[in-house]
Amino acid sequence: MKYLSMLLLAWLTAFQAGQDIYICKNAKINLYSSAPIEDIEANSSQAVSVYKASTGELSFSLPIRSLHFEKSLMEEHFNENYMESDKYPKASFKGMVLSPPDISKDGTYPVNVTGDLEVHGVKQARTIKGEIKVNGGVISMTSEFIVKCADHKIDIPQIVFHHIAENIRIRVAATYAPYKN
Description:
The chain is mainly beta and about 180 residues long. Helices cover about 15% and strands about 55% of the residues. It has a single domain (about 20-180), classed as Lipid/polyisoprenoid-binding, YceI-like (Lipocalin, Beta Barrel), CATH 2.40.128. Strands 1-2-3-5-6-7-8-9 form an eight-stranded antiparallel β-barrel. The chain is elongated, with a radius of gyration of 17 Å. InterPro entries: Lipid/polyisoprenoid-bd_YceI, TTHA0802/YceI-like_sf.
């Protein structure tokens, strides 16, 4: 959490905290893997996100160990064998909402976000579809996309191929509050 607080502070300082900066300290991330033998799901509500409405700048940071699985053994294997969470403690995204909506108007806006997704120490340029909702000044974002394990050099041994999918579905949900000094 200390790392996330420092990241958030650095990001806010870099953009000189203005009136159009919004933060979410408890963004929800869901991972889902469907394989022939079993489905695997993990959830976290500890991701931090910052959104600058005037420019569309958007960042997310997720502590990998905050993802919790139904079975503790799955969680242990995920952190130690696949994600190497001690070596790569976070996943992050930094990018821009293309054509950011006018947040002074309530509505639901489909958006595309382009930027770098870093998972397992490997950055990959991505364009991700999502949705921004504005309701009474409250901004929320949702997205669902697929991450290929191979794209981030996450090795899945052949012996567990029927337990873990090569493509992982990611769901993101964040509700933002205006940043106040």
